[in-house]
Structures are given as C-alpha cells and as structure tokens.
Amino acid sequence: MVTGIHHVGIAVADLDESIDLYRSALGAELLHRARSDRDGLEAAFMSTGAGEVELLSPTTEDSPVGKFLARRGPGLHHVAYGVTDIAQALDEARGAGLELIDPEPRMGMHGAMIAFVHPKTMGGVLTEFVQT
Ligand code: CO
To answer: Would the pLDDT of 1 be above 80?
Structure first.
C-alpha cells in the first residue's frame, strides 16, 4: 500500500533560519517554497537525498501549525507516506478504522494529491498520504 516515507514535516518558528540550518547542517537543498492561506502556513521542501523534509511555519497564530507550535514548541509535526493510489489508500485506511482528517484527497502544496489521517488513530503521529 505505501511505497516509502515521502517526507517528514517539522514545525519551526522561523522558516528562513531553519532553511539555512538544514542547508548548513545536512547539505539539504531547497526544492520548493510555498504558502497556503487555507492552512495558514508557509512550507519549504528540502531535499535530503532519498526523502524530503518539509519545514512548516505558521502565517497566523490561530492556524493548526500556529497552535501546534504554541502548545508543543518546534519539532516533528507529521510523517508522510508515498502511495501509488491515494483513493485506494484512503479506502484501506478507513477499513483499518483510521479517522481521516481529509475524507477525500486534496491538492497539496507541491502539486500532488494528499490526505491527512488523525494522529489519535495513528499512534499519536499526524500522518499524511501523498500520491506519487
Ligand atoms: Co507534508
């Protein structure tokens, strides 16, 4: 069902500073930077070789990432798995009793269809499926 870990999402307070950190510490390359007013965040996708890191910073304090940062501070926000058929992946997740945040796939910030699964049914980890 999943083809691998597609990326790991990390909530950060300062996006520019974090991009510089991942560049200098890991040699990661900035692939794409995008802002979502719907989700109230700005994201930077960094290449780390086989997988990506998605750095997320809130654009408003009352956005989900803004609340996450206020409550828990910077750190791991979500794990994203690549899937070849996202509709099938969501059907299987539903069948396994997972609670879907996005019952239908939606367009993500890097041009691929995505859907989120609630952390409470995935061992406390916000989980994302990405159509690959
Ligand atoms: Co993501």
So the answer is: no
